[in-house]
Amino acid sequence: MLASDSYLAQLLKKLGASDFTINTADFLFGHVLKIALILLISLVLTRVAARVVRRSITGLVNRAPLRTGARAELRAATLAGVLASLVRVVVWTMSTLLVIQELGFNLGPFIAGASIIGVALGFGAQSLVKDFLSGFFILVEDQYGVGDIVNLGDTTGTVEEVNLRITSVRSFDGTVWYVPNGEIKKVGNTTKEWSRAVVDVVVGLSTDVAAAVAAISDELAALAGDATVADGLVEPPAVLGVDAVGPDSLTIRIAARVRPDRRVAVERAIRARAADRLRRDGHTHVPEQLVVP
Prior knowledge:
The chain is of the alpha+beta class. The chain folds into 3 domains: 7-124, Helix Hairpins, CATH 1.10.287; 143-189, Roll (SH3 type barrels), CATH 2.30.30.60; 195-280, Alpha-Beta Plaits. Helix content is 54%, strand content 17%. The chain has 8 helices and 8 strands, in the order αααααββββββααββα. It has helices spanning 7-14, 19-62, 70-102, 107-124, 126-141, 209-224, 227-230, 263-280, and strands spanning 149-151, 156-162, 166-170, 176-180, 188-189, 195-204, 238-245, 249-258. Strands 4-3-2-1-5 form a 5-stranded antiparallel beta sheet. The longest helix has 44 residues, at 19-62.
């Protein structure tokens, strides 16, 4: 009995081929070629889709108002890789189902079973899906990146790794915290583009404020010419004036816009210079340690 009444089968029958030859040829050309065509289309589609995704993500990141050179390129590569992998999974899953169907298997029970398993996994993986979606938007919006100093609520430190599921942050004492992205409600990034060095200098209540401010300002002008810290300054440091008055002290605030990775070094230099200058000028009740908010 012939496998089908296709044109190929009818042609071979007219040529006098045996039923076995007709069935074999019909199977090869009717199924194997279709399977090969499905696999070929899937291969081409994944390559083209991955290239389109990479170009689209790169263009989107480059148009972002807060792109930062190498960091933007790294972020674009991460997002493009994730989305390209997702496209490949979808395409090859569909092609696998088509191949199974072409081989004559009934996909009904398989799809029904997969649906039940999918529902069960969906209930159990809600938090995981939430983490992945949150991580995707963290990367797209460039909320923070590796090397940034962030405050994630109860966790503060330097970001060491960001992926779709978790953010790892190393605190000042060396502890590494692994925070699921879905649990991050708000983020404070102290190193976005630039940072601000803030130093509060506490002096005695009887201090001549004008003289102290003039002395500190003079020292800050010299600081701007110090090669060891000048590369960290985005703008020259300035004395903002008296920020607070206590029972027996005054607080003079100094601020400077600096490079994020040099904030601590600049603050230390400001503290040291201000303390030395105030002591040399004889201002009274200068604390042994300058207070930083």
